[in-house]
Automatic annotation (TrEMBL):
Residues 176-185 have a biased composition (Low complexity). Residues 144-260 are annotated as: Disordered. Residues 224-235 have a biased composition (Polar residues). It comes from the Eukaryota. It comes from Lophiotrema nucula. This is PWWP domain-containing protein.
Amino acid sequence: MATAGPGDYVLISSFIPDMPQWPAVVVTEGDIPVHLREGRPQIYNKPVLLMGHLKFHWAPVGDIHPLYDTQCPQEESRDRAKLERAYADVLDAWINDWQASHWINLRKQNQEINQSTPAKEQRRSMNEHEDELYARAIQASLDDLQTGKRARPPSVTPEDTAAKRRRPLELPRLHSSTSETGSPSRSPPKRRIDFHNNLRDIGFGGSSRSRSRTLGPDDGTVDSGGNSTAVTLSQRIRKTKESSSSLRQPKGHQSHFRAQINDSDDLATDEGWVEFRIGPERKPYFLRYELIQERSYFTGTNAHGLHCLLPKEGGGWIFDRPWLVDIKEEDFQFLAQFLENGDFGVIRVETDADRELAYAGCAAAWHVAATFGAEDMLEHIVAKFTSTMPWEEKEIFVFAKIVYRTDAVPLPAIDMMKDMLLDFIAAHYDNYLKNDATELAEFQRHSHDFQRDLLKRRLYMLDAGNEDDAREVVEEEAYKQANA
């Protein structure tokens, strides 16, 4: 989950096989010991500190989920005691407003105590033997907890604790505003996206209709029709754009996005609206100023090195750069959807038809997001793209072409997407040579960046002798996502 930031309490789904999701707190790379930073995996991930264990872990974004409650799940587990301790630590953090620094300092204190006490055995690596030693220490702490040695602050009553266990965890520094319709609108990047609106649970206006949805004009949700058969990439992109184009004629003021509407003359001089002239015909499109005022790629000296948002003489605002002529109208609507709803296209992936449409939406939205330098949208596409697993080799290769052909400024999310695509292609390189050798060779001739990056990734795998391991990791991730 790309929107989780340092200090956020989350659930990690891939810590131990056949285990429930494990509570953790997101930390910064600076908090990670040097030897762990040097061994960071190549996939898109975030550093976390596992609660209970107080162990650092690189968690793939697809394995990071929001933490809604501090009540330990009732499912049986061989590490049930550890899991209960981890949830108890999260509850303590909530009650006492402990940030990630509290647990990092506690970990350092424990290390100092361990170093001052002669150890019977030296730990040489993070292996099963080390986990066994951790289990003994944690079990001893749990015994203390069960005998009453671990007390809660005197200001916290049992009634308060029970009530707070039933409420969703209120995460700090996460804000969302409200639109005219009362529906939540996405906060600007400086405030980070609402953490609870993850890819599988994101909604608009609290609607409880069909679980599989595509964003539309009225309440932000339209059934996606999960009975379509396999189609080509161009057909999937066209279908996704058709569902997106319904935003072009919103009813009344239900949408922040306006395009070619009757009162465009009034909006053109309204201080609350920003005009965009899109495509070869330079058609005027309008976005509410409140949606873009704090996004640097609109308002500040951004990646293009320009102050792109300018006041108009008669009032209102305009964003009018020469490269807007190359933006397709239907692609611009993906950006408008994201600014208004925090998502675009299919918002829940539960069927094969949903997966195909979500993949097509990511492919179609990538170009406009990269061209604008929209960091928050690019991060969202990276996270959303993981929901389209299991991937097909042809799909990954097509998406790699889109990413490498887009002339964009360097941004972390672009590098993350490239890493994810290259990992897959390199791990399945033999299959590409067998099935798409001509197309692969042709694209490498046209894109030297792709050729160089793929060669580096292949050499890394061959030198490390871990090509088979890499393939297993990719296939395991695909299986877990498909069965999540």
